[in-house]
Structure formats: structure tokens, C-alpha cells
Give the backbone structure.
Amino acid sequence: MDAAIHIDNVHKHYGSLHALKGMSLTIEKGEFFGLLGPNGAGKSTLINIIAGLTRMDSGQVSVMGQDVVSNYRQSRRRIGVVPQELVYDPFFSVREILQIQAGYFGKGKQSTGWIDSLLEGLKLTDKADANMRTLSGGMKRRVLIAQALVHKPDVVILDEPTAGVDVELRSSLWEFVKALHNDGHTIVLTTHYLEEAESLCQRIAIINHGKLVALDSKESLLARGVGMTCAVSVTLAEPLNNIPDDLLTKIKSVDGEKIEFILNRGTDNIMSLVDCLRDLGAEILDLRTEDADLEDVFMELTGQRST
Amino acid sequence: MNWEGMYTLYYKELKRFGKVALQTIMAPIVTALLYLLVFSHVLEQHVRIYDNVSYTAFLIPGLMMMSIIQNAFANSSSSLIQSKVSGNIVFVLLTPLSYFEFYLAFLLASITRGLAVGLGIFLVAMLFVSLPLHNVVWLLLFSIVSSAVLGSLGIIAGIWAEKFDHMAGFQNFIIMPLSFLSGVFYSIHSLPEFWQSVSKFNPFFYMIDGFRFGFFGVSDVNPVFSFIVVILIWLMLGWFTLAILKSGYKLRD
């Protein structure tokens, strides 16, 4: 596959802060790609550099083969960005905003039909002539998505698109984005909602302190998580006293009769745990294992819990 | 050139001030007419600056040009600071518009608003006073280039300012004093020699004096000289504006 976005050794400083430390990354055409990281990790800086909103100190970035600096006109035609903040121009209606945005890309006159399709797809048709100020937060978010798509870009970047959005809208947004992906668009998603990345993305990059700490398929990352942090939840008939030290180190939490263990798949196994508990005289009422989720991987790789 | 993109940005700027025309067009016209009524009432019988030109007639070109330049400045500066503060500037920065197209669109919108306000004042003032039109070409040249100077200055201010307070400072401590002290209400020949010399360092003086020549055929300094001064200031400010737009200063950090 060819690269939709190619990032090569990108550095960016803000004063003394080294926001991106030699970031290199390739996102293939047609991928649904997740970009994860805690606040301040450098996600937004990276996206802004790809979109041309921020200038890198050194390195090279291209979108669909077009350099974002030397061939910025072409690269910006190929990319649509849904910003994180709910920003809008209060002077205009939804339709005016979309017509103006298409016009910037030289597609004003030919976009009428496409704008109608976008309004319909995003359930905004009845709000087409409403001023942006009068729309709810969720509707404003949908207008932002329409604005990013109005010039028919190949690559769509969604920067935390569901932050502060209710569950119902979130689900309808993802249906729309999945349909875009099925139509052949490359989707890049940054999110704090790890379950979103887990359910949608094919490959995931995790960045922290301006560095890439993991880049792999979702399955591989999850497998890494399973190997490192397999969670076993045990409910006993009675609380356990006098737990030996080698078992104590494996306990994540104790809540009365319920104990959560974290096992290393390489060195521990569940049957040994069960035997150990029985040897201590415990009666096991319930035992559950949980697959690792991306949050575990995220925590493990970045050393902190996401919010 | 992305002509359609540039035209769209220009059109958007026109629509932006057109949607609040009461504030952007009508209010400056009413303010200028209030100045005209008050000053002409008080000074008409006491001041005569040029032979055969009443003080009220003398006042009108100055008020027109003062409003043209103040509104040209206000157009680009307020649009940019509002877009920056609200964050919607991002929708322009994400597009394939070049810094030059960005500049031209904002500049043309400033000139358009300046001319619209100037024409409005002229039409309403004509109801009260008959004004001669000595040379329409000079009028157009001075009003367009002066709007361009202030439109450029407005872009610089809009990019530099980080909050509305910065913009108010720019407007109240630079634009207003320079425009009030540029000979709108008087001829610099009526000033003491020292203040005449000081006035000649005020670029707004040349805009107003040259513009007034277009109406009456008389001026404090040669209009060709005034025009050269105004053009040179525009070239300098235009170059500086393009340089900061190209650098991405405060827009593409």
C-alpha cells in the first residue's frame, strides 16, 4: 500500500519544550488509524503540522505524496481536519459556512449537490439555514465534520471528535465515519476514549512526551497487553487472611471477598493461582478473567492512566 | 493563483460586514454627520480656510477620508481578532490559500468597506451642502490607496493582537489620534510653525489633504507629493504585512 501520510523525523519546539522528538510514522491509504496519547503528548502538534497549521522545526511530512510545506496547496486539498474545539463563525448559517469552505478550495459552484448530501448524511438538512449560534453542541460538531469533508479530501483527521458528545450522537457519528472509511477514505482518529480506538482502528500509534512509544495493529497491541497484564478476578466465600508475599505482589485490588490479580502470562498461569488459593483454604465462588484492553496497554506504555 | 479561493475569502468578508451593516456602514455615516452638524454650526461663520469654500464644505472631505481610513482599519483588524479569539481562523488556515491571496482578500474587503462608508457620507452630506468635484480620479486614487494602507495596518494589528484590549489600544492610541490630528477639521497652515512641521510626519495628513484636492483643486501640499507619500507607505506596510503572513507569525506557530 502507498502512504496516505508520511511523517519523517519531525521535531518541534515551543520555547524550551521539545514537543515532538524526531517523530516518524507512516499511515497507509485506506487505513483507519488511531493516534493515542495522554494530554500534552504531542498529538495535536503532530496533527497541526500535517494540516499546515503549525510549522515543524525540521523533518518532512507528506499527505498523499504531497509535501505539506513545499506543495501545501495540493496537500491541503487532500486532507480534511475536524478540529477538537467547537469553533464556528457566528455570522453565517450552516449552508453558508459549507459554501464558503468549498469556495476556499475552488469548489464553490460545483459543491451544491455534495453539500446537500453532507447535510443529509449528518442529519443537518433541517438546520441548513440556521445560524451556527443557534445549534446544539452535537450539531456544531456535525457541521465541523461536514466542513472537513466539503472539498472531498482523501484523508480525514478527526481530533477528539466525540469529546463532550452524548452517547447517541457519538454512535451516529461513528456510523458516518465508518461509512466514509468504507468509501475508501483514510481516517486518522485521535481520542481519549480508548474503547473507540479499540473498536474502530486497524492500527494504533501511541505517543507520549513527543515520542512514538508504540505502533502496531490493534490485535498486536492487545496481545502485548494480554501477555503483560492478564486480569483475574476471584470471589471467595470468606476474606482471605495471611496471604503469602509471592501472591501479594500479584494483587491489584482487594474488596472484601473479591480479589483482583494481575498475572504475567509468561510466568504465571490461572491454574497455579487457583491451586495456591485452595492451599490457603479458600473456597472459590467465582472466577473471571478479562482480556486486556487498550487502556492497559496505554497505561503500560505511557506509564499513566488515560482520562 | 487560487482565484476562486481568494474571491471566496473576499466575499465572506463582505458578507461579514454586510450582515452588521447598521454597525459597520450606517454608524460611521451617522457619526460623521454629527461631527458635520456640530462643527459646521459652531464654526461656519468664524472659519474660512480656502476662498470660495465654506467651512462646512471644507469639513466634508476630511470627515469622509477619516471615516474611510478608520473603517478600512476596523474591517481587517476586527475580522482577524474575532477569528483568532473565537478560533474559526483555522478554517482559512486549513485551505490552499497562499499568504498573498489571504492578504489581497482582506485588503480588498477593507477597501470596499472604506469606499462604501465614504460614499455613504458623501451622498448624505450632499443633502446639506453642494460640493464641487474638481478631479474624481484623485478622489478615487486617494480613497483606494489610503484604504489599502489602513487595511494593511489592520491586518498587522489583527495578527499581532491577542485580545480585544490590544486592538482597542491600537485603535485609540494610534489610529484615532493620527486621524484627528491630520487636518480633518483645520488646515495645517492655521497651526503654529512647529505643529505644521509635526503634522507633516503624520501620514494621514497626506491622505486627507490629497483627497480634499480632488474636491476643491486646492491643498496644503502638492497632491502628487501626497500621493507618492501614501503609495510609499502602502508599499512598505504591504511588504511588511506579506512578510509576517509568510512567516506564519502568530497564525501558524
Summary: Chain B touches chain A at residues 2-5, 7-9, 11-12, 15-16, 19-20, 83, 86-88, 90-98, 248, 252-253 (CB under 8 Å).
